[in-house]
Amino acid sequence: MPHDYSPRTGVLQEQTWPAMRDAHWPVALLPFGATEPHNTHLPYGTDTILGSEVAARVAAACNARGTNVVALPAVPFGVNTTQLDLPFTINLMPSTQLAVLRDVVRSLEPHGVRGLVLLNAHGGNELRALVRELQPSTPIMLAIVNWWQAADQSTFEQAGDHAGELETAAVMHVAPHLVVPDRAQWGDGRSNPSTLEGVRKGVAWMPRRWTQATVDTGVGDPRAATAENGATFMEQAVERISAFCCELAVADPARLWASQAP
Ligand SMILES: [Zn+2]
How far is the CA of 19 from the centre of ligand 1 (A)? Predict the structure, then answer.
């Protein structure tokens, strides 16, 4: 997002010690990105860039409503075990991701954070198992948001998956200078189905070997993407995620489920 080069409210990397020390920050956002090819037209950092931007906007929206939400720096690497034959894909094993998250959670525990939202921007990051493992040992309420699923995808012809229309539109909105301008150079994001019927029918799941499953590393046709659709989608996602963060800031961990909403 173009901004005026003053520190963005709630973005930890841009804050001073007194700003953090002298306020209460009940909710933190931890974006989970990735470093991997995104078709032929988007940058390796797409997921990290989008996760960081959504986190910053959510923090701004919450702070404007009077709830202090801090956006932590993004984890720039994701789980990419099936893309390691693509140059400069950097993989973080799920077990490493768990160790990173455990250390972040422990670092936040003494400082009044009540809820930590894992703001995921990469499909290979399956964070639920991490949260299931860590939640019993921390008082911080842990939640996961896959940002690309947080808004209405029906504005897209085909939202697509990896570097598809949704993700392309979002980068066109947030960082247009990083999108290859000549659309003739964009791959069509065609992907190959599994040769196993059980996988095609959804009976079984197997990780996709990216160089077998894709042609241009993309999954989903990006060519209908527009910056306007990206803006609309991201604004709605930010609104919904912000509303959740404000809820979480005052939630009672002993009463997250009840027969009637309070
Ligand atoms: Zn991506």
Answer: 33
Domains, the chain, with CATH or none: 12-255 (3.40.50.10310)
Percentages (nearest 5) of helix, strand, coil residues in the chain: 40, 10, 45
What does the pLDDT profile of the chain (262 residues) look like in tens digits? Answer: 555 679 999 999 999 999 999 999 999 999 999 999 999 999 999 999 999 999 999 999 999 999 999 999 999 999 999 999 999 999 999 999 999 999 999 999 999 999 999 999 999 999 999 999 999 999 999 999 999 999 999 999 999 889 999 999 999 999 999 999 999 999 999 999 999 999 999 999 999 999 999 999 999 999 999 999 999 999 999 999 999 999 999 999 999 999 876 5
CA of 57 to the centre of ligand 1 (A): 19
* Other beta carbons less than 10 A from residue 18's beta carbon: 8
Sign of CA dihedral 226, 232, 236, 239: positive
Distance 88 CA to ligand 1 centre (A): 15
Distance 162 CA to ligand 1 centre (A): 5
